[in-house]
Amino acid sequence: DREHLDHALLKVTTKNSQGEKYLTDVVSIMLEQGQSASAHPINDHWLVAGINDRQQLSQVAAELNSRIVKAWQLAGVTITEPATTWIDVTCQLGKDSTLLPSTRLHGLTQVGTSATIGPDTTITDSVIGHGVIISRSQVSSAEILDNASVGPFAFIRPGTVLGADGKIGAFVEVKNSVIGPGAKVPHLSYVGDASIGEGTNIGAGTIFANYDGVSKHRTTIGAFAKTGSSNTFVAPVAIGDGAYTAAGSTIRRNVESGALALNPVAQKNLSGWVLANRPGSKSAEAINLDTE
To answer: Do both 117 and 162 map to the same domain?
Structure first.
C-alpha cells in the first residue's frame, strides 16, 4: 500500500555502477521487507520513458507539450501552429483565445477568452485579460487588462499593469508602471516607475528618467493628459490631469492640472554655414545646384 511504497522509495540509493536512482529497485526492497509486488501493464510508453541525457529530456518535453497543446485545442483554443507553440502545464487559457505561431506561455500565465497572442510572443507569469491582443512581444510578471493591446516589439517587465482598452505600442519598454484605462504609449518610449492616468496619451520617443544614479524615483501623470513627442520626464515629477507638454520638452518640475509645459529655445539659422565649413561636400554641391 501507499505507506509501504513511500517507505521503500526512501531506501532507493545510488549505489550502482551508474550512480543513479532506479525506481525498479523498489520491487526488491519491498520483497525484502516481506511485502508483495505485482506487474502493471503500461500501454503508453511515454509515461515511463527514461531520461539519461539532454537529448532524451528534450524528446520527453516535446511529447508532453504536444499533449498539452492538443488538450487546449480540444477545449476550444485555436492554436494555428502547434509545432512552434509552447504551453507550460501550469498555464490557463480561456475559450476562443488564439495562439499564433512561435508563441510561448510559461509559469502561472493566464489568458482570457477571445485573446490573441502572437506571433513570436513569450509570456511568463502574467495575467492576460479578455480580448487582449499581444503581438511580437515579451511579457513578464505583468497584468494586461481586457481589450488592451501590446506590440509589436514591446518589452513588458515585472510590475506593469496596463488598464482596459489601453495600448503599449511598437518598440516600447515598460517596467513597474501602472497605465490607466484607455491610456496609450504608442511607440518608441521607455516608461519606468510611472503612473499614467486614464485616457492619457504619451507622445512618441518619450523617456521616463527614473534613475538618478543612486535611487529610482516615480513619475505621475494624471488623467487625459497629452504629452508631446520626444519628452523626458525627470523623476520625481507629477503632471496634473488634463495637462499638456510641448514636443521636445524636458520636464523637471511639476505641471499643474490644465497647464501647458514647454522649454522655449529660440531657433537660430546660420546662413552659409555649409559652404563655409563643408566645401566640396555633396551637401555643398546640392546648395550650388539649387542656386544656379
So the answer is: no
Amino acid at 204: A
37 in a structural domain:
no
Residue pair 158/139 in contact (Cβ under 8 Å)? The answer is: no
Domain range for 20 is: 2-32
- Statement to judge: residues 123 and 160 lie in one domain: no
Beta bridge partners of 227: 202, 245
Question: How many domains does the chain contain in total?
Answer: 3
Q: With contact defined as beta carbons under 8 Å apart, do 223 and 240 qualify?
A: no
Q: Give the whole-angstrom CA distance, residue 107 versus residue 121.
A: 14
Indicate the Cα dihedral angle 93, 99, 102, 106, nearest 10°: -10
Provide the residue-wise pLDDT of the chain in tens; the chain has 292 residues: 788 889 899 999 998 888 888 888 999 999 998 888 888 888 998 888 888 899 999 999 999 999 999 999 999 999 999 999 999 999 999 999 999 999 999 999 999 999 999 999 999 999 999 999 999 999 999 999 999 999 999 999 999 999 999 999 999 999 999 999 999 999 999 999 999 999 999 999 999 999 999 999 999 999 999 999 999 999 999 999 999 999 999 999 999 999 999 998 888 999 999 999 999 999 998 986 655 4
Establish if 131 belongs to a structural domain: yes
Any idea what the CATH number is for the domain that residue 212 is in?
2.160.10.10
CB 242 within 8 A of CB 222: yes
Q: pTM (2 decimals)?
A: 0.87
Q: Are residues 252 and 227 in contact, defined by beta-carbon separation less than 8 angstroms?
A: no
In a shared domain, residues 100 and 154: no
Residues noted as catalytic: 187
User: Do the beta carbons of residue 151 and residue 168 sit within 8 Å?
Assistant: yes
User: d(Cα 108, Cα 115) in Å, to the nearest integer?
Assistant: 17
How close are the terminal C-alpha atoms of the chain, in Å?
A: 101
